[in-house]
Amino acid sequence: MQPTTNKKILLNEVESRKLLKKYGIQQNEYGFAKTKSEAKEIANNLTLPLVMKVVSPKIVHKSNFGGVKLGLNSLKDVVEAFDEINANANNFGVSNIDIDGVTVQEMESGVQELLIGVKKDDTFGNVLVVGLGGVFVELMKDVSLGISPLSESYIYKMVKNLKGFPLLDGYRGTERADVPAFVEMIKRVEVMVTEEDKVEELDLNPVIIKRNGDGCLAVDVRIITRA
Ligand code: ADP
Ligand code: MG
Fold this sequence. Notes:
By secondary structure, the chain is an alpha+beta fold. The protein has helices at residues 13-22, 36-44, 75-91, 135-138, 152-160, 179-195, and strands at 2-3, 8-10, 30-33, 50-55, 68-72, 101-106, 112-121, 125-132, 143-147, 199-209, 216-218, 221-226. The chain has 2 domains: 8-13 and 109-226, ATP-grasp fold, B domain (D-amino Acid Aminotransferase, Chain A, domain 1, 2-Layer Sandwich); 29-106, 2-Layer Sandwich (Dna Ligase, domain 1), CATH 3.30.1490. It is built from 6 helices and 12 strands. Strands 1, 2, 7, 8, 9, 10, 11 and 12 form an 8-stranded antiparallel β-sheet that branches. A 4-stranded antiparallel β-sheet has the order 3-6-4-5, with helices on one face. A hairpin with a 6-residue loop joins strand 10 and strand 11 (216-218). Helix 5 packs across helix 6 (179-195). The protein is globular, with a radius of gyration of 18 Å. Adenosine-5'-diphosphate is lined by residues 28, 51, 53, 61-63, 68, 70, 105, 107-108, 113, 205-206, 219-220.
């Protein structure tokens, strides 16, 4: 755990994923490695292709630091990615002492990338945000907001009100996505932030939503708590 400003603490990926697990919020398979040989050992127990990501209290947006390597298909790729991730972090001014290690995780594919966010507001309490990931949120600001407590029917409404919803709903013969699993995940996130009152901010981005019946998985999580 690492202090940020205003006595806020950015949980690392391992701590954040433990909290997701506690509340039954589905995530992809992963392990945490401090060394290259640990990374190889984890990789041996996962299904290819893999992804590796830097774990450092100094790095919030990992891809901006060259800290995310996708599509690793062999142990050789894993070894190379380990060195590259460390070198990239060093080049961005993060020294080895501030690099805890890497996560090695399964690469997932699905129908779309989505996001779930929560911010604790002094007036409203927990404000939940859902949306489609990538350009939809960056360019189109395509998100729906809801203030906890949320009914299941309101959560459905939040998802269906997204401009990009047709992309989850079989638009032009594309695959239908598992919207009920996404709604269930939003409900569980709401339970988590209600029970864990120290959680100030949460971002699951992306959540990869699969075909109807195949569920959805958080593959990136960022949680900020109060000290
Ligand atoms: P950050 O948001 O800190 O830059 P992410 O973990 O979100 O890092 O990774 C950046 C992008 O890489 C994601 O938005 C997603 O498109 C892709 N990605 C990350 N992890 C996975 C994964 N396990 N499977 C598939 N794609 C992934
Ligand atoms: Mg992310």
